[in-house]
Amino acid sequence: MIYSGNTNKRQKISKESKTVEVELETQGKQNASSGLTALSNSKAKSEMDTENLLERIVSKRNLYEAYKRVKKNKGSHGVDGMRVDELLPFLQENVSSLISNLLNGEYKPQPVRRVEIPKPNGGVRLLGIPTVVDRLIQQAIAQILNEVFDKEFSENSYGFRPKRSAHMALKQAQMYINEGNRYVVDMDLEKFFDTVNHDILMSLLARKVKDKRVLKLIRKYLNSGIMLNGVIVKLEDGTPQGGPLSPLLSNILLDELDKELEKRGHKFCRYADDANIYVKSKRSGIRVLESITKFLEKKLRLKVNVEKSAVSSPMKRKFLGYSFYYCRGSARFRVHNKSYERLKEKIRKITNRNVSMNFNFRLKKLKEITTGWVNYYKLADMGNKLEEIDKWIRRRLRACIWKTWKKTKTRFKNLNKLGIPKHKALEYANTRKGHWRISGSPILNKTITNQRLINHGFKSLSSQYKKIRLS
Protein backbone atom coordinates (compact mmCIF):
# COMPACT_ATOMS: atom_id res chain seq x y z
CA MET A 1 0.00 0.00 0.00
CA ILE A 2 2.81 2.41 0.88
CA TYR A 3 5.00 1.79 -2.14
CA SER A 4 6.49 -1.00 -4.13
CA GLY A 5 9.61 -1.50 -6.21
CA ASN A 6 12.16 -4.08 -7.24
CA THR A 7 15.70 -3.99 -5.92
CA ASN A 8 18.69 -5.01 -7.97
CA LYS A 9 20.33 -8.31 -7.07
CA ARG A 10 23.94 -8.23 -6.00
CA GLN A 11 26.19 -9.72 -8.64
CA LYS A 12 28.37 -12.63 -7.64
CA ILE A 13 32.11 -12.56 -8.41
CA SER A 14 33.09 -16.10 -7.49
CA LYS A 15 33.23 -17.12 -11.18
CA GLU A 16 35.35 -14.09 -12.05
CA SER A 17 37.67 -14.71 -9.11
CA LYS A 18 38.17 -18.30 -10.21
CA THR A 19 38.92 -17.16 -13.77
CA VAL A 20 41.54 -14.63 -12.72
CA GLU A 21 43.14 -17.16 -10.35
CA VAL A 22 43.61 -19.55 -13.28
CA GLU A 23 44.91 -16.72 -15.48
CA LEU A 24 47.48 -15.64 -12.92
CA GLU A 25 48.48 -19.25 -12.39
CA THR A 26 49.14 -19.91 -16.07
CA GLN A 27 50.59 -16.53 -17.02
CA GLY A 28 53.69 -14.88 -15.66
CA LYS A 29 54.81 -18.14 -14.02
CA GLN A 30 58.23 -17.99 -15.56
CA ASN A 31 58.83 -14.39 -14.45
CA ALA A 32 57.92 -15.07 -10.84
CA SER A 33 59.45 -18.54 -10.60
CA SER A 34 62.54 -17.43 -8.68
CA GLY A 35 60.34 -15.92 -5.97
CA LEU A 36 58.14 -18.99 -5.70
CA THR A 37 61.16 -21.31 -5.55
CA ALA A 38 62.69 -19.24 -2.80
CA LEU A 39 59.45 -19.41 -0.84
CA SER A 40 59.74 -23.18 -0.63
CA ASN A 41 63.29 -22.92 0.64
CA SER A 42 63.09 -22.25 4.39
CA LYS A 43 66.73 -21.22 4.57
CA ALA A 44 66.31 -18.56 1.91
CA LYS A 45 62.95 -17.32 3.20
CA SER A 46 64.39 -14.87 5.72
CA GLU A 47 66.76 -13.56 3.07
CA MET A 48 63.93 -12.97 0.64
CA ASP A 49 62.10 -10.92 3.25
CA THR A 50 64.62 -8.20 2.60
CA GLU A 51 66.23 -8.91 -0.77
CA ASN A 52 63.71 -10.62 -3.08
CA LEU A 53 60.45 -8.91 -2.24
CA LEU A 54 59.49 -8.03 -5.79
CA GLU A 55 59.21 -11.69 -6.79
CA ARG A 56 56.85 -12.23 -3.87
CA ILE A 57 54.84 -9.15 -4.82
CA VAL A 58 54.24 -10.35 -8.40
CA SER A 59 53.65 -14.00 -7.47
CA LYS A 60 50.37 -15.41 -8.75
CA ARG A 61 49.02 -16.05 -5.24
CA ASN A 62 49.74 -12.52 -4.05
CA LEU A 63 48.30 -10.90 -7.18
CA TYR A 64 45.18 -13.04 -6.88
CA GLU A 65 44.67 -11.91 -3.27
CA ALA A 66 45.23 -8.30 -4.33
CA TYR A 67 42.67 -8.67 -7.13
CA LYS A 68 40.06 -10.02 -4.70
CA ARG A 69 40.63 -7.08 -2.35
CA VAL A 70 40.41 -4.46 -5.11
CA LYS A 71 37.25 -6.13 -6.48
CA LYS A 72 35.68 -6.19 -3.01
CA ASN A 73 36.52 -2.56 -2.25
CA LYS A 74 35.05 -1.40 -5.58
CA GLY A 75 35.77 2.31 -5.71
CA SER A 76 35.81 4.89 -8.47
CA HIS A 77 37.88 4.95 -11.65
CA GLY A 78 41.26 6.65 -12.03
CA VAL A 79 42.54 9.05 -14.70
CA ASP A 80 42.35 6.34 -17.40
CA GLY A 81 38.63 5.76 -16.84
CA MET A 82 39.00 2.00 -16.27
CA ARG A 83 36.37 0.63 -13.87
CA VAL A 84 36.88 -2.17 -11.36
CA ASP A 85 34.75 -4.58 -13.38
CA GLU A 86 37.12 -4.04 -16.34
CA LEU A 87 40.16 -5.21 -14.38
CA LEU A 88 39.59 -8.92 -15.01
CA PRO A 89 39.56 -8.66 -18.84
CA PHE A 90 42.65 -6.45 -18.65
CA LEU A 91 44.53 -9.01 -16.54
CA GLN A 92 43.51 -11.87 -18.82
CA GLU A 93 45.23 -10.13 -21.73
CA ASN A 94 48.08 -8.25 -20.04
CA VAL A 95 49.10 -9.95 -16.79
CA SER A 96 52.25 -11.46 -18.32
CA SER A 97 53.55 -8.16 -19.70
CA LEU A 98 52.54 -6.37 -16.47
CA ILE A 99 54.62 -8.76 -14.36
CA SER A 100 57.52 -8.49 -16.80
CA ASN A 101 57.47 -4.68 -16.69
CA LEU A 102 57.40 -4.69 -12.90
CA LEU A 103 60.34 -7.10 -12.63
CA ASN A 104 62.35 -5.15 -15.22
CA GLY A 105 61.68 -1.79 -13.57
CA GLU A 106 59.89 -0.51 -16.68
CA TYR A 107 56.44 -0.02 -15.16
CA LYS A 108 55.40 3.61 -14.78
CA PRO A 109 52.47 4.44 -12.46
CA GLN A 110 49.86 6.89 -13.70
CA PRO A 111 49.00 10.09 -11.80
CA VAL A 112 46.10 9.94 -9.34
CA ARG A 113 42.74 11.59 -9.89
CA ARG A 114 42.12 14.32 -7.33
CA VAL A 115 38.76 14.20 -5.51
CA GLU A 116 37.58 16.68 -2.88
CA ILE A 117 35.37 15.37 -0.06
CA PRO A 118 33.60 18.09 1.98
CA LYS A 119 34.24 18.01 5.74
CA PRO A 120 31.33 18.49 8.17
CA ASN A 121 33.10 21.41 9.88
CA GLY A 122 34.03 23.14 6.61
CA GLY A 123 36.94 22.70 4.24
CA VAL A 124 37.64 19.64 2.13
CA ARG A 125 39.53 16.37 2.47
CA LEU A 126 41.74 15.74 -0.56
CA LEU A 127 41.69 12.19 -1.89
CA GLY A 128 43.86 10.77 -4.65
CA ILE A 129 42.21 7.97 -6.63
CA PRO A 130 44.80 5.76 -8.42
CA THR A 131 43.89 3.80 -11.54
CA VAL A 132 42.48 0.31 -10.99
CA VAL A 133 45.72 -1.32 -12.19
CA ASP A 134 47.77 0.85 -9.84
CA ARG A 135 45.42 -0.05 -6.98
CA LEU A 136 46.07 -3.73 -7.75
CA ILE A 137 49.85 -3.24 -7.68
CA GLN A 138 49.74 -1.07 -4.55
CA GLN A 139 47.59 -3.67 -2.81
CA ALA A 140 50.05 -6.41 -3.81
CA ILE A 141 52.95 -4.34 -2.42
CA ALA A 142 51.09 -3.56 0.81
CA GLN A 143 50.29 -7.24 1.45
CA ILE A 144 53.96 -8.24 1.35
CA LEU A 145 55.31 -5.19 3.18
CA ASN A 146 52.77 -5.79 5.94
CA GLU A 147 54.47 -9.12 6.63
CA VAL A 148 57.82 -7.32 6.94
CA PHE A 149 56.80 -4.30 9.05
CA ASP A 150 53.63 -5.12 10.99
CA LYS A 151 55.24 -7.52 13.47
CA GLU A 152 57.47 -4.72 14.78
CA PHE A 153 54.81 -2.02 15.01
CA SER A 154 53.77 -0.78 18.45
CA GLU A 155 51.05 -2.59 20.39
CA ASN A 156 49.43 0.84 20.82
CA SER A 157 48.95 1.30 17.06
CA TYR A 158 45.53 0.10 15.87
CA GLY A 159 44.86 1.70 12.49
CA PHE A 160 44.93 -0.28 9.21
CA ARG A 161 46.53 -3.34 10.74
CA PRO A 162 45.52 -7.02 10.58
CA LYS A 163 43.41 -8.24 13.52
CA ARG A 164 43.20 -4.73 14.97
CA SER A 165 40.34 -2.25 14.98
CA ALA A 166 39.09 1.10 16.18
CA HIS A 167 37.10 -0.67 18.92
CA MET A 168 40.33 -2.12 20.33
CA ALA A 169 41.86 1.37 20.45
CA LEU A 170 38.78 2.75 22.21
CA LYS A 171 38.79 0.00 24.85
CA GLN A 172 42.48 0.62 25.49
CA ALA A 173 41.78 4.34 25.91
CA GLN A 174 38.94 3.52 28.33
CA MET A 175 41.31 1.38 30.38
CA TYR A 176 43.88 4.20 30.61
CA ILE A 177 41.19 6.63 31.81
CA ASN A 178 39.92 4.18 34.43
CA GLU A 179 43.48 3.75 35.68
CA GLY A 180 43.40 7.41 36.74
CA ASN A 181 44.74 9.19 33.65
CA ARG A 182 42.08 11.88 33.67
CA TYR A 183 43.66 14.14 31.02
CA VAL A 184 44.28 13.48 27.35
CA VAL A 185 46.82 15.08 25.01
CA ASP A 186 44.74 15.13 21.83
CA MET A 187 47.12 15.71 18.91
CA ASP A 188 45.92 16.63 15.42
CA LEU A 189 48.36 16.40 12.53
CA GLU A 190 47.60 19.05 9.94
CA LYS A 191 47.00 17.59 6.45
CA PHE A 192 49.08 14.55 7.38
CA PHE A 193 48.85 12.65 4.09
CA ASP A 194 49.75 15.79 2.13
CA THR A 195 52.85 16.62 4.20
CA VAL A 196 54.68 13.28 4.47
CA ASN A 197 58.35 13.88 3.64
CA HIS A 198 59.40 11.46 0.88
CA ASP A 199 63.07 11.26 1.85
CA ILE A 200 62.36 10.48 5.50
CA LEU A 201 59.78 7.86 4.51
CA MET A 202 62.10 6.19 1.99
CA SER A 203 64.94 6.07 4.53
CA LEU A 204 62.63 4.27 7.00
CA LEU A 205 61.59 1.81 4.29
CA ALA A 206 65.22 1.16 3.33
CA ARG A 207 66.05 0.04 6.89
CA LYS A 208 64.17 -3.22 6.27
CA VAL A 209 63.58 -3.41 2.51
CA LYS A 210 66.83 -4.39 0.81
CA ASP A 211 65.22 -5.01 -2.58
CA LYS A 212 66.04 -1.76 -4.36
CA ARG A 213 63.54 -2.53 -7.12
CA VAL A 214 60.69 -2.32 -4.58
CA LEU A 215 62.05 0.93 -3.15
CA LYS A 216 62.30 2.35 -6.66
CA LEU A 217 58.70 1.31 -7.43
CA ILE A 218 57.39 2.92 -4.23
CA ARG A 219 59.32 6.09 -5.01
CA LYS A 220 57.63 6.14 -8.43
CA TYR A 221 54.24 6.00 -6.75
CA LEU A 222 55.16 8.84 -4.41
CA ASN A 223 56.31 10.93 -7.38
CA SER A 224 53.51 9.97 -9.80
CA GLY A 225 51.73 13.26 -9.11
CA ILE A 226 48.08 14.24 -9.41
CA MET A 227 45.93 15.15 -12.40
CA LEU A 228 44.38 18.62 -12.10
CA ASN A 229 42.33 19.95 -15.02
CA GLY A 230 44.19 17.70 -17.43
CA VAL A 231 47.63 18.79 -16.16
CA ILE A 232 49.96 16.47 -14.18
CA VAL A 233 51.21 18.18 -11.01
CA LYS A 234 54.26 16.61 -9.37
CA LEU A 235 54.33 16.27 -5.59
CA GLU A 236 57.48 16.84 -3.55
CA ASP A 237 55.76 15.80 -0.32
CA GLY A 238 52.78 13.67 0.64
CA THR A 239 51.29 10.29 -0.12
CA PRO A 240 47.83 10.69 -1.70
CA GLN A 241 45.09 9.51 0.64
CA GLY A 242 42.99 6.97 -1.24
CA GLY A 243 45.50 4.36 -2.46
CA PRO A 244 45.89 0.94 -0.75
CA LEU A 245 49.56 1.66 0.01
CA SER A 246 49.05 4.98 1.84
CA PRO A 247 47.81 3.56 5.19
CA LEU A 248 50.83 1.26 5.50
CA LEU A 249 53.27 4.04 4.59
CA SER A 250 51.66 6.29 7.21
CA ASN A 251 52.07 3.57 9.85
CA ILE A 252 55.73 3.09 8.91
CA LEU A 253 56.39 6.81 9.36
CA LEU A 254 54.33 7.25 12.54
CA ASP A 255 55.88 4.14 14.10
CA GLU A 256 58.76 6.50 14.87
CA LEU A 257 56.34 8.52 17.00
CA ASP A 258 55.12 5.33 18.71
CA LYS A 259 58.65 4.26 19.56
CA GLU A 260 59.43 7.70 20.98
CA LEU A 261 56.32 7.65 23.17
CA GLU A 262 57.13 4.13 24.38
CA LYS A 263 60.70 5.18 25.19
CA ARG A 264 59.33 7.99 27.35
CA GLY A 265 56.90 5.62 29.09
CA HIS A 266 53.70 7.31 27.93
CA LYS A 267 50.29 5.64 27.78
CA PHE A 268 48.82 6.30 24.35
CA CYS A 269 46.55 5.04 21.58
CA ARG A 270 47.10 5.78 17.91
CA TYR A 271 44.79 5.06 15.01
CA ALA A 272 46.46 6.24 11.76
CA ASP A 273 47.20 9.95 12.30
CA ASP A 274 44.81 10.24 15.27
CA ALA A 275 46.94 9.99 18.43
CA ASN A 276 45.84 10.41 22.06
CA ILE A 277 48.24 10.40 25.04
CA TYR A 278 46.77 9.88 28.53
CA VAL A 279 48.34 11.61 31.54
CA LYS A 280 47.60 12.24 35.22
CA SER A 281 47.57 16.05 35.25
CA LYS A 282 47.01 19.00 32.94
CA ARG A 283 50.48 20.37 33.68
CA SER A 284 52.18 17.17 32.53
CA GLY A 285 49.88 17.09 29.49
CA ILE A 286 50.97 20.57 28.40
CA ARG A 287 54.61 19.56 28.81
CA VAL A 288 54.06 16.39 26.73
CA LEU A 289 52.23 18.30 23.99
CA GLU A 290 55.09 20.79 23.66
CA SER A 291 57.86 18.18 23.58
CA ILE A 292 56.08 15.78 21.18
CA THR A 293 55.22 18.68 18.87
CA LYS A 294 58.94 19.50 18.65
CA PHE A 295 59.75 15.85 17.93
CA LEU A 296 57.17 15.61 15.13
CA GLU A 297 58.14 18.87 13.48
CA LYS A 298 61.92 18.49 13.72
CA LYS A 299 62.49 14.76 13.22
CA LEU A 300 59.54 13.72 11.05
CA ARG A 301 58.86 17.10 9.40
CA LEU A 302 55.17 16.89 10.23
CA LYS A 303 53.02 19.83 11.28
CA VAL A 304 50.82 19.76 14.38
CA ASN A 305 47.57 21.71 14.11
CA VAL A 306 47.81 23.95 17.19
CA GLU A 307 44.17 25.07 16.99
CA LYS A 308 42.75 21.54 17.01
CA SER A 309 45.26 19.99 19.42
CA ALA A 310 44.60 20.37 23.15
CA VAL A 311 45.12 19.05 26.66
CA SER A 312 41.71 18.42 28.18
CA SER A 313 39.39 15.94 29.85
CA PRO A 314 38.56 12.92 27.66
CA MET A 315 34.90 13.74 28.35
CA LYS A 316 35.28 16.90 26.26
CA ARG A 317 37.27 15.46 23.36
CA LYS A 318 36.42 13.27 20.40
CA PHE A 319 38.36 10.09 19.63
CA LEU A 320 37.40 8.00 16.59
CA GLY A 321 33.88 9.45 16.67
CA TYR A 322 33.36 8.54 20.34
CA SER A 323 33.66 10.42 23.61
CA PHE A 324 33.36 9.36 27.25
CA TYR A 325 31.28 10.08 30.33
CA TYR A 326 31.65 9.04 33.97
CA CYS A 327 29.15 6.67 35.51
CA ARG A 328 29.65 5.49 39.10
CA GLY A 329 33.30 6.49 39.01
CA SER A 330 34.28 4.76 35.76
CA ALA A 331 34.50 5.95 32.16
CA ARG A 332 31.86 4.74 29.72
CA PHE A 333 31.43 5.31 25.99
CA ARG A 334 29.08 7.77 24.37
CA VAL A 335 28.70 8.95 20.79
CA HIS A 336 30.14 12.40 20.19
CA ASN A 337 27.61 15.04 19.13
CA LYS A 338 29.41 15.61 15.82
CA SER A 339 28.99 11.93 14.98
CA TYR A 340 25.24 12.21 15.51
CA GLU A 341 25.16 15.27 13.25
CA ARG A 342 27.04 13.44 10.48
CA LEU A 343 24.57 10.56 10.68
CA LYS A 344 21.59 12.90 10.49
CA GLU A 345 23.10 14.70 7.51
CA LYS A 346 23.35 11.40 5.61
CA ILE A 347 19.78 10.49 6.58
CA ARG A 348 18.52 13.89 5.41
CA LYS A 349 19.90 13.25 1.93
CA ILE A 350 18.22 9.85 1.62
CA THR A 351 14.89 10.93 3.13
CA ASN A 352 14.70 14.20 1.22
CA ARG A 353 11.09 14.32 -0.01
CA ASN A 354 12.11 16.65 -2.85
CA VAL A 355 14.27 13.90 -4.37
CA SER A 356 12.25 11.41 -6.39
CA MET A 357 13.15 7.87 -5.33
CA ASN A 358 11.49 4.46 -5.22
CA PHE A 359 10.35 4.01 -1.60
CA ASN A 360 11.76 0.49 -1.24
CA PHE A 361 15.09 1.69 -2.66
CA ARG A 362 15.02 4.59 -0.21
CA LEU A 363 14.57 2.17 2.69
CA LYS A 364 17.35 -0.04 1.36
CA LYS A 365 19.83 2.87 1.24
CA LEU A 366 18.70 3.98 4.69
CA LYS A 367 19.31 0.50 6.07
CA GLU A 368 22.83 0.41 4.58
CA ILE A 369 23.77 3.60 6.42
CA THR A 370 22.13 2.81 9.76
CA THR A 371 23.39 -0.79 9.94
CA GLY A 372 27.02 0.24 9.46
CA TRP A 373 26.64 3.18 11.86
CA VAL A 374 25.11 1.10 14.68
CA ASN A 375 27.74 -1.63 14.27
CA TYR A 376 30.52 0.93 14.61
CA TYR A 377 29.01 2.79 17.58
CA LYS A 378 27.73 -0.31 19.41
CA LEU A 379 30.15 0.26 22.32
CA ALA A 380 28.34 3.47 23.30
CA ASP A 381 25.36 3.92 25.61
CA MET A 382 22.80 5.53 23.28
CA GLY A 383 19.43 3.76 23.60
CA ASN A 384 17.32 6.86 24.36
CA LYS A 385 19.05 8.97 21.74
CA LEU A 386 18.42 6.37 19.03
CA GLU A 387 14.70 6.27 19.85
CA GLU A 388 14.57 10.05 19.27
CA ILE A 389 16.33 9.69 15.93
CA ASP A 390 13.99 6.84 14.92
CA LYS A 391 10.93 9.06 15.53
CA TRP A 392 12.53 11.77 13.40
CA ILE A 393 13.29 9.29 10.58
CA ARG A 394 9.76 7.85 10.59
CA ARG A 395 8.31 11.35 10.33
CA ARG A 396 10.57 12.12 7.36
CA LEU A 397 9.49 8.88 5.68
CA ARG A 398 5.80 9.76 6.20
CA ALA A 399 6.47 13.15 4.63
CA CYS A 400 8.01 11.38 1.61
CA ILE A 401 4.96 9.13 1.27
CA TRP A 402 2.52 12.02 1.66
CA LYS A 403 4.23 13.92 -1.12
CA THR A 404 3.92 10.96 -3.49
CA TRP A 405 0.16 11.10 -2.90
CA LYS A 406 0.08 14.33 -4.90
CA LYS A 407 -3.58 14.58 -5.91
CA THR A 408 -6.49 15.07 -3.56
CA LYS A 409 -8.18 12.03 -5.07
CA THR A 410 -5.13 9.82 -4.35
CA ARG A 411 -4.84 11.05 -0.77
CA PHE A 412 -8.53 10.44 -0.09
CA LYS A 413 -8.42 6.97 -1.63
CA ASN A 414 -5.30 5.86 0.30
CA LEU A 415 -6.41 7.29 3.65
CA ASN A 416 -9.81 5.63 3.30
CA LYS A 417 -8.23 2.27 2.42
CA LEU A 418 -5.99 2.55 5.47
CA GLY A 419 -9.03 2.83 7.80
CA ILE A 420 -9.79 6.56 8.04
CA PRO A 421 -13.53 7.42 7.81
CA LYS A 422 -14.57 9.10 4.56
CA HIS A 423 -15.38 12.50 6.07
CA LYS A 424 -12.02 12.65 7.87
CA ALA A 425 -10.12 11.31 4.85
CA LEU A 426 -11.75 14.00 2.67
CA GLU A 427 -10.82 16.71 5.18
CA TYR A 428 -7.14 15.70 5.21
CA ALA A 429 -7.03 15.09 1.48
CA ASN A 430 -7.98 18.74 0.93
CA THR A 431 -5.65 20.19 3.56
CA ARG A 432 -3.35 23.06 2.66
CA LYS A 433 -0.89 22.27 5.44
CA GLY A 434 2.71 21.54 4.48
CA HIS A 435 4.19 18.06 4.09
CA TRP A 436 6.27 18.26 7.28
CA ARG A 437 3.34 19.42 9.41
CA ILE A 438 1.06 16.68 8.06
CA SER A 439 3.76 14.02 8.58
CA GLY A 440 3.49 14.58 12.35
CA SER A 441 -0.32 14.46 12.42
CA PRO A 442 -2.32 11.75 14.26
CA ILE A 443 -3.94 10.75 10.94
CA LEU A 444 -0.66 9.67 9.31
CA ASN A 445 0.52 8.06 12.54
CA LYS A 446 -2.65 5.94 12.56
CA THR A 447 -2.46 5.01 8.88
CA ILE A 448 1.25 4.76 8.09
CA THR A 449 1.99 3.04 11.37
CA ASN A 450 5.39 2.03 12.70
CA GLN A 451 4.55 -1.60 11.98
CA ARG A 452 3.62 -0.83 8.36
CA LEU A 453 6.99 0.85 7.87
CA ILE A 454 8.72 -2.17 9.40
CA ASN A 455 6.78 -4.49 7.09
CA HIS A 456 8.06 -2.51 4.09
CA GLY A 457 11.67 -2.88 5.23
CA PHE A 458 12.33 -0.02 7.66
CA LYS A 459 14.77 -1.12 10.34
CA SER A 460 15.03 1.28 13.26
CA LEU A 461 18.37 2.13 14.81
CA SER A 462 17.11 1.26 18.30
CA SER A 463 16.02 -2.26 17.27
CA GLN A 464 19.39 -2.90 15.61
CA TYR A 465 21.21 -1.56 18.66
CA LYS A 466 19.22 -3.73 21.09
CA LYS A 467 19.85 -6.81 18.98
CA ILE A 468 23.60 -6.18 18.93
CA ARG A 469 23.78 -5.49 22.68
CA LEU A 470 21.88 -8.68 23.49
CA SER A 471 24.03 -10.85 21.24
What does this structure look like?
With 471 residues, the protein is of the alpha+beta class. 55% of the residues lie in helices and 11% in strands. The strands form three sheets. The chain has a four-stranded mixed beta sheet, with no helix packed on it. Strand 1 (112-118) and strand 2 (124-129) form a beta hairpin. Helix 2 (33-40) crosses helix 3. It is globular, with a radius of gyration of 27 Å. The two termini are 34 Å apart. The model is unreliable at 3-16 and 28-48 (pLDDT under 50).
What's the helix and strand layout?
Blueprint: H1 14-26, H2 33-40, H3 42-51, H4 53-57, H5 60-73, H6 87-104, E1 112-118, E2 124-129, H7 132-149, H8 166-178, E3 183-188, H9 192-195, H10 198-206, H11 212-222, E4 226-228, E5 231-233, H12 246-263, E6 267-271, E7 274-279, H13 282-299, E8 310-312, E9 322-327, E10 330-335, H14 337-350, H15 359-376, H16 383-404, H17 408-417, H18 422-429, H19 435-439, H20 442-447, H21 450-455, H22 461-470
Parallel strand pairs: 1-4
Antiparallel strand pairs: 1-2, 3-7, 3-8, 4-5, 6-7, 9-10
